[in-house]
Write a structure and sequence with these properties.
Length: about 400
């Protein structure tokens, strides 16, 4: 059973437009017939000011009620986006197994109207949806997110100076899927395959990238390593585009070690004159056994570093996954679904209090198959990565 995700932000208010101003008709007779009435200069200026004010208010309201992601809507029906991905046959995953586009109820309904109109509603929908059966595609609440092609993802990433993932292992898995999408490789796209032996590459294909500890040791942690080493290896799997650097910074406590602060600061100051934002995806959950004070301390820690840089650094707080059926009994009380749900809600409130965006993953994973009760396979993390790309698509680019 999916749970209603609370609505923290108030709905946009309809702007109050000013009524038009009527000037008095005070003409003095000078012994002639009353002349035709012409507007005075001050009346013209007043009316012009009202028109400009109405235009600005309407423009502001439209910007808040409909935030376009600037990616054109496709008129064709959704096909399997993984058809040309390496490992499509071996891994047995089709994008239509994990995502279904919205279907209009009426023939006259425009397809684009079924997608979420702004970032707030997008996050609310992705956090509060559910599944119509175990391991079936996930349906957001009220409006839909999009499944972007690789070229569209590149268009979105081009608007950023960098993208930073800060978190523990659940977010690390999402970052692996992020790399699979950009490398168009679901067989080994989350791994530094140039460092692996042939036997290791065979053993770590598909879901094993995420489920085997010996494979996780080869996880990609930054785009620079792929760009520097992949081309010279005998098992090349380059990025479809690599103009925007991205990195995963592993954290499991707060405060984090100083070397991680230094790594984050180097990203913030990499391009001092760049006007583009640096997007940060932040999460911390199972590594701290859902410790609320540690999570809020971590939010303050990294937001403070971003504020000091005086850069445009939007944050997305990502909540924890639900517990799967194979969760060890010893962890049910501390990391079971009751604890995870309360952690999801309270940390979303804490993020909102700090003016951070929040994305809940509890409902999304509640009826999904988990291989150990804590972590999930490719079908889940690929969709989670696409949710984060949807968030990126709705951020302002300046």
């Amino acid at each position: 059973m999916a749970y209603p995700f609370p609505r923290f932000s108030s709905a946009p208010q309809t702007p109050q437009y000013l009524k038009s101003v009527e000037s008095p008709n005070s003409w003095q007779s000078r012994g002639f017939d009353k002349p035709r009435s012409y507007p005075t200069r001050w009346l013209l200026l007043s009316l012009a000011a009202v028109v400009v004010l109405i235009f600005l208010l309407a423009r502001s309201f439209a910007a808040h009620s409909w935030q376009t992601d600037r990616i054109p809507f496709s008129k064709s029906d959704m096909d399997d986006f993984f058809n040309h991905f390496e490992g499509r046959q071996d891994c047995g995953i089709a994008s239509t197994d994990i995502y279904l586009p919205p279907i209009p109820f009426h023939a006259t309904t425009e397809k684009h109207s079924l997608y979420c109109p702004n970032r707030a509603k997008l996050l609310q929908a992705m956090s509060g949806g559910g599944r119509h059966g175990f391991d079936t595609p996930y349906f957001p609440l009220g409006c839909h997110f999009r499944w972007y092609s690789t070229s569209e993802i590149c268009m979105i990433l081009d608007r950023f100076d960098s993208v930073v993932f800060l978190g523990d292992n659940p977010l690390r898995h999402i970052y692996s899927a992020f790399n699979m999408l950009l490398r168009e490789n679901i067989a080994l796209g989350g791994l530094r395959q140039w460092e692996m032996k042939e036997s290791e590459r065979e053993a770590c294909r598909c879901d094993n990238q995420l489920t085997r500890p010996e494979c996780l040791a080869y996880s990609v942690l930054d785009s620079r390593s792929v760009r520097s080493n992949d081309a010279v290896s005998g098992h090349s799997s380059p990025y479809f585009c690599d103009r925007t650097p991205h990195v995963f910074i592993p954290i499991d406590r707060s405060p984090a070690p100083e070397d991680l602060h230094a790594a984050f600061n180097s990203i913030l100051h990499r391009e001092p004159d760049s006007y583009k934002p640096i997007a940060v995806v932040h999460s911390l959950s199972v590594a701290t056994s859902l410790a609320w004070p540690t999570a809020t301390s971590s939010m303050d820690e990294w937001v403070t570093l971003a504020d000091i840089s005086q850069k445009n650094v939007p944050f997305l707080w990502v909540g924890p996954n639900a517990a799967g059926h194979l969760k060890p009994p010893s962890q049910i009380l501390s990391q079971g679904n009751n604890a995870l749900w309360h952690y999801t809600i309270e940390m979303a409130k804490e993020a909102e209090a700090r003016q951070l965006d929040a994305l809940g993953m509890y409902n999304f994973t509640l009826q999904a198959g988990s291989w150990d009760g804590t972590y999930y396979g490719q079908e889940v993390v690929l969709a989670q990565a696409m949710m984060i790309i949807n968030w990126l698509s709705r951020l302002e680019s300046t």
